[in-house]
Amino acid sequence: NSSGISSALISWRLLKTDPSNVAFDIYKSVDGETEVKLNEKPISNTTSWVDADMPDVMLWQRQLQQEKLL
User: What share of the chain is helix, strand, coil (3-state, %, to 5)?
Assistant: First the structure.
């Protein structure tokens, strides 16, 4: 990619009020296309993620969704 940036660190806070079994999914959309889930299983043991696939585009977004593990 021409920007020289090849990855992005995504991090979030775990709140004191979050349930003990909380987990997260990360989705990415490039240029307004359909969101794609980045992680295989819900993330429950960390509050950060590295997306190693940074396309050479101007518009991208990531969404973090919280879910409860059963």
Answer: 0, 40, 60
- What is the phi-psi region of residue 4: left when phi exceeds 0, alpha when psi lies from -120 to 50, beta otherwise? left
Confirm if 29 and 61 have CB atoms less than 8 A apart. yes
**Separation CA 49–CA 62 (nearest Å):** 11
Report pLDDT for 3: 60
pLDDT digits (tens, 9 = 90+) for 10-64: 888 988 998 888 898 888 887 778 888 889 999 999 999 898 877 655 445 555 5
CA neighbor of 18 nearest in space, from 56, 63, 70, 68: 68
Amino acid in the structure at residue 35: E
- Classify 3 in phi/psi space as left (phi over 0), alpha (psi -120 to 50) or beta: alpha
